[in-house]
Design brief:
elongated; binds NADP nicotinamide-adenine-dinucleotide phosphate; HIBADH-related_NP60_sf; 11 helices; 6PGD_dom2; oxidoreductase; N-(1-d-carboxylethyl)-l-norvaline Dehydrogenase, domain 2; eight-stranded mixed sheet; oxidoreductase activity
Length: 284
């Protein structure tokens, strides 16, 4: 018997294994067995098949490409039966519906659904975020293991889809900001400015940007769109400047046009004198 079994050794699974190795004995399984070789030692064993991996430990972590891959593994001979009475933590990325279906299929298993908001290089740090949802009792059994891989564990409640919902909402925020960042990088390039410096500056002022996002979230929750410090009309003016600058500097204008289109919809809907948060009413 080992402390933890880990299924899936892509870049993320390998990072999880390395973070756990100093504290726990591990049993590994991966579809492509060779990937486990550099990780094996006295306390880290390779299982011959998925069922043996599940049998080896009371806590089973799974981190594979998606839920289709996870389902394929869970359908392998003997795996479902071997999981009964154990804690299964699903760390593969999916939708809330994926999580609900996986939970419904996990008969007799203490199932937790998790989402790591980090790159493999960030695993094992005290500030690494991990969203977890599911039964609190199951979490109690494996909290120290999960906090070893991601110190900033955020329990999002019993509703099994919550971790995936928080994950996708956060990724939407991140990739939205990244899309804007890449267009910003083209603006910098068009003026001969350093993109690395631009990235470092954004990192440095991110608490201020975070404050703006938090204020819009509070406004949406309260349904409070009036008395804007910065009105939709003012923000739409900046949106038009992106389009103008892209034309002047002959840049790809897909991001400026997307943004200007969103502002046009908000102005057409009559939100010119409301705060930016009113954009959510356009999307609704
Ligand atoms: N990398 C990141 O920055 C990051 C960040 C947060 C969350 N995640 C999530 O973590 C999960 C794993 O990501 P990853 O970066 O390690 O790489 P990945 O390429 O998304 O997943 C690779 C893993 O999935 C396995 N796999 C794929 N299809 C399979 C199938 N049909 N049956 C069995 N196993 C299958 C691979 O096995 P083989 O080795 O045999 O191909 C390997 O273990 C994903 O859901 C990803 O979204 C990743």
């Amino acid at each position: 018997m080992t402390d933890v079994s880990l299924i899936g050794l892509g870049p993320m699974g390998i990072a999880l294994a390395r973070a756990l190795q100093p504290r726990y004995t591990l049993t590994l399984w991966n579809r492509t067995a060779e990937r486990a070789k550099p990780l094996l030692n006295q306390g880290t064993l390779l299982a011959a098949d998925a069922r043996s991996a599940v049998e080896a430990s009371p806590i089973v972590l799974m981190c594979v490409a998606d839920y289709a891959a996870a389902r394929a593994i869970l359908a392998m001979p003997g795996v479902a039966a071997a999981l009964r009475g154990k804690v299964l933590v699903q760390l593969s990325t999916g939708t809330p519906q994926d999580a609900r279906e996986a939970w419904a299929a996990a008969d007799g298993v203490a199932y937790l659904d998790g989402a790591l908001l980090a790159t493999p290089g960030q695993i094992g740090r005290p500030d690494t975020p991990l969203f977890i949802s599911g039964e609190e009792r199951a979490l109690a059994a494996c909290r120290p293991v999960l906090e070893t891989i991601a110190g900033n564990l955020m329990y999002m409640g019993e509703a099994i889809g919550n971790a995936a919902a928080w994950d996708l909402a956060t990724l939407s925020c991140m990739f939205g900001a990244m899309s804007g960042f890449f267009h910003g990088a083209r603006i910098c390039e068009s003026e001969g400015l350093g993109v690395g410096e631009f990235g470092r500056m954004i990192g440095a002022i991110s608490p201020v940007l975070g404050e703006m996002i938090r204020a819009e979230g509070d406004a949406i929750e309260a349904g409070r769109y009036g008395e804007p410090e910065s009105s939709m009309a003012t923000c739409a003016g900046s949106g038009r400047l992106f389009v103008k600058q892209a034309r002047e500097a002959k840049l790809d204008a897909s991001f400026p046009h997307f943004l200007a289109g969103m502002f046009d919809r908000a102005l057409a809907a009559g939100y010119a004198n409301e705060r930016l948060a009113a954009m959510v009413k356009v999307l609704r």
